[in-house]
Model the fold of this input.
Amino acid sequence: MTLYYRVEGRVQGVAFRYHTSVEAKRLGITGSVKNLTDGSVEIYASSDIKTLSKFESFLRKNPGSSVVEKIEKYDVKKNIKHEMFKILY
Done:
């Protein structure tokens, strides 16, 4: 299963992508995290639903010095195959 997250708040310039990547790799999640021009961050995460639930809980705990104000989550109908979890620039 692949989920798309759009995270808003103070999530750029605070190592949010780094902490997100470390946690995703720890959980065995594949996908990517990327800053968007509007100040939010997008995440594609692929794993089983139980693991993705743990990952989402982590995101809501304000990783690093971030302040997560809102998370939008969408199921990506087409399962995206990723080899690993990457930080995109």
Remarks:
- The domain at 2-88 is CATH 3.30.70.100 (Alpha-Beta Plaits).
- Helices lie at 16-27, 49-60.
